[in-house]
Write a structure and sequence with these properties.
With 421 residues, this protein is α/β, with parallel strands linked by helices. The chain has helices at 11-22, 64-67, 100-109, 114-130, 141-147, 152-167, 176-188, 200-207, 250-256, 305-308, 327-330, 334-349, 401-420; strands at 2-7, 27-30, 42-45, 48-51, 57-58, 76-77, 81-86, 89-94, 191-193, 214-215, 220-226, 229-234, 237-246, 265-276, 289-292, 299-304, 317-324, 358-370, 389-391. The protein has 3 domains: 2-41 and 199-262 and 379-420, 3-Layer(bba) Sandwich (FAD/NAD(P)-binding domain), CATH 3.50.50; 43-76 and 192-198 and 265-370, Protoporphyrinogen oxidase, mitochondrial, domain 2 (Polyamine Oxidase, Chain A, domain 2); 79-189, no CATH class. Helices cover 33% and strands 26% of the residues.
């Protein structure tokens, strides 16, 4: 018997195990797959590092220093801003506090009205200084932006696709506090990619745990009370512990804890292309995010990720990631989506070259993130539904990398309370 069994070796489970061991408690992490990370994994395909879904690591996340030495990840940043496609072509928005000269030039030649830039400036300053935004009487991201004086044109052409990539939800109805936190993270820090891919984060977290803590290939089928503790049952055995932490993805958590209410989920599909750098349109060879601001196709956001982090592709090659989040487009078949993605990219770059790009990998993630509208937030007490049973992860907390790590640390504190009680 150990003090705590942690089911799930994703970010929440690993952060929980770290915090438990720091408290001097014994624990074991049971992970069903062949590696740690949950949805934060990186595969090697034909010499490319391919993340499972388009993800970035925001270096301003407050939980990051608690779980890993950030300098060990070899982070490379995106330019703080984005190109967004308008009816008149491409327009660029850059972070005025990080790239002040470039931001002024963007405003002179860009499509965003000065009135919208003035409306957004105090929000960015407030977020940068305090790490939060005022709600301004709104309950949603869209309501906050409207109440701040931002026009619908700027919202639709830039802010909606930008945050659709963050929440995997183009509605811009995310809870105002969840939106404010992410806005502040982009204001205060940078979007980055690790040198070994996003999967390097959970690998580095796991390396801090005592040897033998993690047991891979161990899928828990059921949990039961056992005397004064809990029993986690898997195919070839069981693990007894005084406290049980369930830190799996939502569907797996509900299969184990059947009383947990179901949450709506957002999906995404990532198309990863490989092309010769010499054949790449010059416009795409910039370490910046590209956004669809006119809804003329399935691609919401895209980037040449190997331009941001060169280790993502072999020498002389470019890895281009194009991502779909609109539920209407996601209802189509993979082949139909691929055809539409290529056609859209041809329009973006005024070239037929995307028709010849090699599709390196296509991945559809059905349960990518829980929807985060105001009514979707889990009620108080959800993280500890029964004595000695603790839940962690985006099913019960904020659905972000930072939220996963924070919920893991919170679960460890709840587990310690249960043990002492």
């Amino acid at each position: 018997m150990v003090d705590v069994t942690v089911i799930g070796g994703g970010l929440a489970g690993l952060a929980c195990a770290q915090a438990l061991q720091a408290r001097g408690l014994t624990c074991v992490v049971l992970e069903a797959s062949d590696g740690v990370g949950g949805r934060v994994r990186t595969d090697r395909i034909d010499g490319h590092l391919v993340d499972r879904g388009f993800q970035v690591l925001l270096d301003a996340y407050p939980e990051l220093p608690h779980v890993v030495d950030r300098s060990s990840l070899g982070l490379r940043p995106f330019i703080a801003g984005a190109h967004h496609r308008t009816r008149d072509g491409w327009s660029r928005v850059t972070h005025p506090l990080r790239h002040p000269v470039r931001a002024i030039m963007d405003r002179i030649g860009g499509s965003m009205p000065w009135s919208d830039a003035r409306a957004l400036a105090p929000l960015a300053w407030r977020a940068w200084r305090s790490g939060a935004l005022p709600a301004l009487g709104a309950s949603s991201a869209h309501g906050l932006l409207v109440n701040a004086g931002v026009s619908e044109a700027t919202i639709d052409s830039f802010l909606r696709p930008f945050f659709a990539g963050v929440f995997l939800d183009p509605s811009l109805q995310a809870d105002v506090s969840a939106f404010g936190f992410r806005f502040s993270m982009f204001a205060r820090g940078r979007a980055t990619l690790p040198v070994q891919g996003m999967g390097a984060l959970p690998v580095a977290m796991a390396a801090r745990l005592a040897a033998g803590t993690i047991r891979l290939g161990t899928r828990v089928r059921a949990i039961d009370r056992s005397g004064h503790g809990w029993m986690a049952q898997f195919d070839d055995g069981a693990m007894a512990s005084r406290v049980l932490v369930v830190a799996t993805d939502g569907p797996s958590m509900r299969a184990i804890v059947r009383s947990l209410p179901e949450r709506p989920w957002c999906s995404t599909m990532q198309f990863t292309f490989d092309l010769d750098r010499a054949d790449a349109p010059r416009a795409m060879l910039e370490p910046i995010l590209f956004l669809d601001g006119i809804s003329r196709g399935p691609v919401n956001h895209a980037a040449a990720v190997s331009v941001v982090q060169p280790s993502y592709a072999p020498d002389g090659r470019v890895q281009w990631s194009a991502n779909v989040v609109d539920p209407a487009w996601l209802s189509h078949t993979d082949s139909t989506l691929e055809t539409a993605v290529r056609e859209q990219l041809c329009g973006w770059f005024g070239s037929t070259a995307p028709q010849a790009w090699r599709l390196l990998h296509a991945q559809r993630v059905i349960h990518a993130l829980p929807r985060q509208h105001a009514g979707d937030r889990p009620p108080e007490g959800t993280a500890s539904p029964e004595p000695g049973l603790v839940l962690a992860g985006d099913q019960v907390g904020d659905a972000s990398i930072n939220g996963a790590m924070a919920s893991g640390r919170h679960a460890a504190a709840l587990a310690e309370q249960a043990l002492s009680g």
